[in-house]
């Protein structure tokens, strides 16, 4: 602000000038015969003093600077003064329109906020498709939607409630216009349409170990979303989102637990746009019940395998008589199994032992009998021998005698026998 004066006769002597600036009766700056004193934020420009002009300079303006200012000048006993009125105007430099929603509610609040403006008088207008939905003028500091800012300016907001179905039923955006006397034309902001979250699960639950899985919701708008965790159909955890904003919102929810079974665990996100598809946790490892059943199954398989090995170690087919001139002169049967060299063959007649064969081809005692083992080919999975007991010429005929062949595996202790009465 410039304060100018003229003095006669010329020229003017700066060392004889006293100039005082006051506001509301309080001194804010003074030039006293070459000495300058001011309050903070203010300075005096005395470069044009010899020409009768001094300027009061504010480094920055706030609302306290509004009002009456007076410039008083004294020069060699002569005095003069002039009053100036300062009007402060500050246009809104922050304006945003947000959509506040509660997933549990059927209504959404559109909040339009303006800040750092002065004086207080301001108006908000909500529109959609160029149709005015609501206009509100804020003029009083008693309004609950008005609050002061530290520099003396004001902030205010206006709220418009609208049904969720109305928002979702059209792709047309909502706008808010703010009009203020410091603006050449109204400012406007547009709020984006609701966007459903993209839900995913991160992490694998390990059975019988403490595990943590993360449910992530990304790219949604507006901000509010609720995470719902379920075991089967039972809700085990509900959590409001702590959202991070980057064009759209993102949030996540953590669930810690120690699983002992593969009971379905799922996460879903409830948002203004609806409830998302459930995402199910993937399990790894074995549950206690599965370990028990697997142990039992392996034990049974091993037992069955051992039983098959035991059962197949020795097999003996019935005795067949070989006759010469109608008289039996030899007996023959087939031996099957594995590791037949470990099979002991015992022949007996009328329960009297004839011989025990330990892989010997002939019997030396008694001399009237001999035994042979002949290999059998083309058998599947097992070995085979033909066992033959030959009866040499003897005094008594074998008629009426009962012969028996017994085969015993020395490793598995399985024994088989067959008999024939002549």
Radius of gyration: 55 Å
CATH topology of the largest domain: Immunoglobulin-like
Largest sheet: 5 strands, antiparallel
First-last Cα distance: 147 Å
Shape: rod-shaped
Number of E-type strands: 36
CATH architecture annotation name of the largest domain: Sandwich
By CATH reckoning, the class of the largest domain would read Mainly Beta
Spatial sequence of strands, sheet with the most strands = 4-3-2-7-8
The helix content, as a percent range, equals under 10%
Write up this protein.
The structure is a single chain. The chain has two helices and 36 strands. It has 422 residues and is mainly beta. The chain has four domains: 2-86, Immunoglobulins (Immunoglobulin-like), CATH 2.60.40; 94-191, Immunoglobulins (Immunoglobulin-like, Sandwich); 198-284, Sandwich (Immunoglobulin-like); 314-421, Immunoglobulins (Immunoglobulin-like). The strands form nine sheets. The chain has a five-stranded antiparallel beta sheet with strand order 4-3-2-7-8, with no helix packed on it. The longest helix has 25 residues, at 288-312. The radius of gyration is 55 Å and the shape is rod-shaped.
Structure keywords:
single chain, mainly beta, Immunoglobulin-like, five-stranded antiparallel β-sheet, 2 helices, 422 residues
Write the layout of secondary structure elements.
Layout: E1 2-4, E2 17-23, E3 26-32, E4 35-38, E5 42-45, E6 53-58, E7 67-75, E8 78-86, E9 94-101, E10 107-117, E11 122-128, E12 131-138, E13 146-148, E14 154-163, H1 164-168, E15 174-179, E16 187-191, E17 198-202, E18 205-206, E19 211-220, E20 225-231, E21 234-240, E22 244-246, E23 248-257, E24 265-271, E25 274-275, E26 279-280, E27 283-284, H2 288-312, E28 314-316, E29 320-324, E30 327-337, E31 343-349, E32 352-357, E33 369-375, E34 383-391, E35 402-409, E36 415-421
Parallel strand pairs: 18-27
Antiparallel strand pairs: 1-6, 2-3, 2-7, 3-4, 5-6, 7-8, 9-10, 10-14, 11-12, 11-15, 13-14, 15-16, 17-19, 19-23, 20-21, 20-24, 22-23, 24-25, 24-26, 28-30, 29-30, 30-34, 31-32, 31-35, 33-34, 35-36
């Amino acid at each position: 602000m410039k304060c100018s004066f003229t003095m006669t006769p010329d020229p003017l002597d700066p060392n004889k000038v006293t100039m005082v600036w006051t506001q509301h009766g309080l001194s804010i700056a003074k030039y006293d015969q070459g000495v300058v004193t001011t309050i903070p934020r203010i300075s005096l420009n005395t470069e044009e003093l010899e020409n009768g002009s001094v300027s009061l300079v504010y480094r920055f303006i706030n609302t306290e600077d509004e009002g009456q200012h007076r410039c008083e000048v004294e020069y060699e006993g002569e005095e003069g003064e002039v009053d100036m009125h300062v009007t402060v105007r500050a246009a809104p430099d922050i304006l945003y329109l947000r959509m506040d929603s509660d997933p549990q509610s059927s209504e959404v609040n559109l909040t339009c906020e303006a800040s750092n403006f002065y004086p207080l008088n301001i108006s908000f207008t909500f529109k959609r498709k160029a149709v005015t939905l609501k206009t509100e003028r804020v003029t009083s500091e008693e309004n609950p939607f008005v609050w002061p800012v530290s520099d003396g300016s004001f902030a205010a907001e206006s709220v418009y409630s609208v049904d969720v179905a109305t928002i979702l039923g059209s792709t047309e955006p909502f706008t808010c216009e703010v009009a203020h006397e410091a603006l050449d034309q109204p400012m406007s902001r547009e709020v984006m349409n609701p966007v459903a979250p993209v839900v995913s699960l991160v992490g694998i639950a390990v059975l019988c170990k403490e595990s943590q899985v993360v449910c992530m919701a990304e790219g949604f708008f507006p901000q509010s979303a609720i995470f719902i965790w379920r075991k089967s159909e039972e809700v085990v955890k509900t959590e409001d989102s702590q959202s991070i904003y980057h064009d759209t919102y993102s949030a996540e929810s953590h669930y810690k637990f120690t699983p002992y079974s593969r009971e379905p665990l799922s996460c879903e996100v409830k948002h203004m746009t609806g409830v998302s598809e459930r995402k199910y946790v993937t399990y790894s490892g074995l549950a206690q019940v599965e370990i028990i059943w697997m142990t039992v199954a392996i034990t049974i398989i091993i037992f069955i395998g051992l039983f098959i090995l035991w059962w197949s170690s020795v097999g003996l087919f019935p005795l067949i008589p070989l006759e010469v001139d109608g008289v039996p002169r030899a007996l023959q049967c087939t031996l099957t199994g594995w590791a037949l060299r470990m099979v002991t063959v015992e022949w007996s007649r009328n329960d009297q032992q004839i011989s025990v064969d330990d892989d010997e081809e002939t019997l030396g005692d008694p001399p009237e009998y001999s035994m042979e083992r002949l290999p059998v080919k083309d058998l599947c999975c097992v070995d085979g021998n033909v066992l033959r007991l030959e009866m040499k010429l003897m005094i008594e005929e074998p008629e009426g005698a009962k012969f028996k062949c017994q085969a015993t595996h020395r490793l598995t202790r399985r024994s088989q026998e067959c008999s024939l009465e002549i």
